[in-house]
Fold this sequence. Notes:
- The structure is a single chain.
- The protein is mostly beta strands.
- Helices cover about 0% and strands about 50% of the residues.
- It has no helices and eleven strands.
- A hairpin with a 6-residue loop joins strand 4 (about 30-40) and strand 5.
- The protein starts with a strand and ends with a strand.
- The relative contact order is 0.32.
- The model has no long low-confidence stretch (mean pLDDT about 95).
Amino acid sequence: QVQLVESGGGLVQAGGSLRLSCAASGRTFSLYAMGWFRQVPGKEREFVTATSRSGDSTTYADSVKGRFTISRDNARNTVYLQMNSLKPEDTAVYSCAAVPAALSTTVIITAERYRYWGRGTQVTVSS
């Protein structure tokens, strides 16, 4: 099975920045569409952003547009989430997800479509 491991979470003040990383095992990372989701206790998992196999196509939730950026380095089997201008409402456990994609331009925003998940990393934004 493909394993995904997130890192880079922590405690930051409102207006600050964090960069999350998601390292994947396996030899076919470049064939996976990737996404980031977040969840807080008592609430449903929320889509954050997703990217295609090459990283050329991306999409973002309205709540993070202009502040967050997803990118990937297929040579390093890693996807990143750059988070700027953080707000207290961004506080959550952030998880990355992967699924094989047949087309290079496919972007998947539905959690149920993803096959592999990391265990998440905590991001806390203080006022």
